[in-house]
Model the fold of this input.
Amino acid sequence: MVNGQWVIRDRRSCLLDEKALEKQYRALVAEVFAHELIQESKRKLD
Done:
């Protein structure tokens, strides 16, 4: 459950740093898509 910047998970409250989380998510998505593009270009060369 999310309430503002606080997240309640497993009966424990944690402060959610949304900007840091979004930055990590964007980096992960970019890495996955870069890996997929490399694999696709290798398949086209074969």
About this structure: The mean pLDDT is 78.
